[in-house]
Amino acid sequence: MAIIISPGLSCVGGAAVIFELKAALKAQGWTVPQSSDGTTYNPAGDQITVPGAGAGGMNNASAWFVIQQPVSGRQFMFQRHPAVDFFWWVAFSTASQFTGGAPNATTPPTAADAQNLLGTGTASTAQLFNVATFRTSILVDSAAPYGFCLFTNIQATTTFNNLIMMDFMQASTFNAADAEPYVLMVAGPTNPVYSGVSNAAASITNQAGNDYMLRGWYKYGLAGAAFQGWAFQPWFSPSVADYFNRTGTNAYNGKDDLYPVVYGHEGVNGGMKGVSSWLQAMGTQRASQDTLNLSASRDLIVIGPGMATNWDGSVPVV
């Protein structure tokens, strides 16, 4: 991984957060094959040039864009709610791409293999934001496998608010036959980072329809393929309440211990998906925006009560 970090961006409104994600991805080679600012449909490029409302704005009713990963055909589609920018529809295409349907200024294209990550359609967006001002940090892998991780906290606080992530499984931790070793997550304010925790098949089954669930392919391109929920597999306890604060600091050096985040699914279509590239679980609860020193000063940041990810050494701005 070659990580490019944009830390602590000031964003007013959900549309500004999504606009910054688009800009960060484009800076690392992602492309926008088609889009609309809610009024003007551009079938061959990026019509959205500003985070606010008006011409070229992301914060317009039903504005949308498709963005494509470098080299591969993987695409995401983001669409703003017709009335407010707290609600979004986010979909993902692995190979077919968003080239179908009859796209126009307020209607995004379709993809034969489209999978909903948040919401279920133009009229069925789901809540991704619940306040107006954020500090947004975006981590983008500038080389293959081209993953990314966006997280926000409410501005002037350390309260975690959102996570949007394309997480590639670490090398040698996923099956060699897995042609799609990614886990995707769009987490809103009512579902913290650790909402994917489960050690019971029933819980995973129940979460499968949750808009904020970890999602990814099982046996992509093979018989029995399914796009399904994956869950963090607990090291310590199946209880969300005490999942991340069971071991405390290391007895030998007094530092926080970090644990691999393992994705798995129990029951039908069960097994291990792999180990996260972006996230590490913590043995001690820390506040969001706390920093840790692993190999260098402030090279990790806490993004939820029990999760840490890569950081650039800077002091987080709230």
Describe this structure in words.
With 318 residues, the chain is mostly beta strands. The chain folds into two domains: 147 residues, no CATH class; 154 residues, no CATH class. Helix content is 7%, strand content 36%. It has two helices and 20 strands. Strands 2, 3, 4, 5, 6, 7 and 8 form a seven-stranded antiparallel β-sheet that branches. A six-stranded antiparallel β-sheet has the order 15-16-17-20-19-18, with no helix packed on it. It has a five-stranded antiparallel β-sheet with strand order 1-9-10-11-12, with helices on one face. About 6% of the residues have low confidence.
Summary of the model, kept short:
This protein has 318 residues and is mainly beta. The chain has helices at residues 14-27, 201-207, and strands at 3-12, 31-36, 41-42, 64-68, 75-80, 87-93, 115-118, 126-127, 133-141, 148-154, 160-168, 182-187, 215-218, 226-229, 231-232, 258-265, 271-282, 291-292, 300-304, 307-310. It has two domains: 1-147, no CATH class; 158-311, no CATH class.
E-strand count:
20
Strand count, sense and barrel status of the largest sheet are: 7 strands, antiparallel
Number of helices: 2
Would you tell me the overall average pLDDT? 86
Percentage of helical residues?
Answer: under 10%
Name the helix and strand elements from N-terminus to C-terminus, one letter apiece: EHEEEEEEEEEEEHEEEEEEEE
Approximate shape: globular
- The share of residues in extended strands comes to 35-45%
The low-pLDDT segments are 194-212
Q: Domains counted in the coordinates: how many?
A: 2
Structural class: mainly beta
> Radius of gyration from the CA trace?
19 Å
| Ends apart, CA distance between termini | 27 Å
